[in-house]
Amino acid sequence: MSKRETYEARTEQLLTPIAAAHGVEIYDVEYVKEGSDWYLRAYIDRPEGVTIGDCENVSRALSDALDREDFIPDAYILEVSSPGLGRALKKDRHLQKSIGCEVEVKTYKPIDGQKEFSGILQGFDAETVTVEEPAEADGQDKITHVFKRSDIAVIRLALDFS
Questions:
Q1: Domains present along the chain, CATH in parentheses
Q2: What's the predicted TM-score (pTM) here?
Q3: What pLDDT, in 10s, does the model give residues 38-58?
């Protein structure tokens, strides 16, 4: 396990009872370097949405727990937030909750001349993700795309502004 994966896993272990005590669920934890700074980000969620107060309360409790454990030797910035509306679907549990929802898929390399796709998430397995584009108004059939997971740069929930 890499340093990043170890820090994320240990943080998630610390965060689990904190999230439960505050009535939220852990969406994701990431440890990333942006520019010269390291960030430890915890994304929390709940069906009715997350408030700033939720983020503040979880952040304080997590900060205290991280200070006690002190397992990250690097200086880092702790952020606790909602994953947002256009959230990235990184884990199987994210994909499972999003079956039947509209998603946007960006691939590393062009597939049939394009790198961006959108449609309804139909399913997934260990190797692939299946997305179905809706039929065009001109009567054209639906198009089903089966992407190799290794070809996907990011898959996220589509934003609906209607």
A1: 3-81 (3.30.300.70), 92-157 (2.30.30.100)
A2: 0.79
A3: 999 999 999 899 999 999 999
- The predicted pLDDT at position 159 comes to 81
- Phi first, then psi, for residue 76 (nearest 5°) are -150, 165
Q: Determine the distance from the C-alpha atom of residue 140 to the mean position of all C-alpha atoms in its chain, rounded to a whole number.
A: 33
Phi, psi of 42 (to 5 degrees): -115, 125
Report the alpha-carbon distance of residue 24 to residue 43 in Å, rounded. 10
Confidence (pLDDT) at 137: 60
What gap in Å lies between CA 44 and CA 87, rounded to an integer?
A: 12
Task: Judge contact between 82 and 50, C-beta under 8 A.
Answer: yes
What is the secondary structure of 22-79 as a DSSP string? TT-EEEEEEEEEETTEEEEEEEEE-TT---HHHHHHHHHHHHHHHHHH----S--EEE
Q: Letter for the amino acid at 137?
A: A
Question: What φ, ψ does residue 103 adopt, rounded to 5°?
Answer: -130, 160
Question: Which of 151, 141, 119, 116 has the alpha carbon at shortest distance from 132?
Answer: 119
Q: Which residues of the chain have pLDDT under 50?
A: none
Q: Give the pLDDT confidence score for residue 26 in this predicted structure.
A: 95
